[in-house]
Amino acid sequence: MGWLVTGGAGYIGAHVVRALTEGGEDVVVYDDLSTGTADRVPQNVPLVVGTVLDADLLERTLREHHISGVVHIAAKKQVGESVERPLHYYRENVTGLQTLLEAMTATGVGRIVFSSSAAVYGMPDVDLVTEDTPCVPMSPYGETKLIGERLIAAAARAHGLRAVSLRYFNVAGAAAPELSDEGVFNLVPMVFERLEAGEAPRIFGADYATPDGTCVRDYIHVQDIASAHRAAATWLGGTPEGTSVVLNIGRGEGSSVREVVDRILKVTGNEECVPDITDRRAGDPARVVASAARIHDELGWTARFGLDDMIESAWQGWRHRHG
Questions:
Q1: Active-site residue, selected from the candidate residues 11, 30, 121, 141
Q2: pLDDT score at 182
Q3: Mean per-residue pLDDT for 42-68?
Q4: Is residue 219 among the annotated active site residues?
């Protein structure tokens, strides 16, 4: 009896695997290795290489490894790419989830923790984003995550699944250098990449209605993301059949892009560098900060790490991977 972690060879997935195994859970990783790497998977954790579109392999894996719950992280997740390739994103993220849920119901696996996203909210015009804030996603990626939440809720009602959908905000940091983010799609690694190339970091827009004119976001350490998944997995064991809840994972605290960039420049020893202010990016809301009250009330979970922890650990990981 254990947990199957889809996407467990990726950046976030590897941290979730570590958190679950450190909590004494048996874990199996299921990953197509399209973005994940096998060296992220601990040697004592089985790795099944396959896609979530492969119904037969999913069913066989669930049966052979006596899986009792799934943490579903595997997904395509680049907003810009989703605009260019919406059919690909719907197939991977929606059809893939449907195939997984069918395999779970066929094998009697009754618990699922689903990695969702704050992208479901779109551009909320509120001080704190709660789980009841209207969802108006602005990209096919965000749409697929919202559809995924609804599909899971419907399956929970129809088939008695126990489910938690976790809406991530802005993830950064690393538990160890070898587990750091290899992608360059988020603010922190994007700044690292510019500095490594001898270029000034970019700030997209400094004329927003915020204290310093730059966008404000809720940044969350990947170790906190992982511990929230472990808390959700544990919590599901004591819930009745048909339970399905949606919870934000955030700190409830906003940091501006300028503040983050300034801290990165300090940590990396580039305090003399002046950021390059460019035009706004289309679709960037001025402020998106999570309310983390519900996850605390439901799971007893609270974020432990601050912005400096995220930046310093991310920098250690960047140096580990880039020399």
A1: 141
A2: 83
A3: 97
A4: no
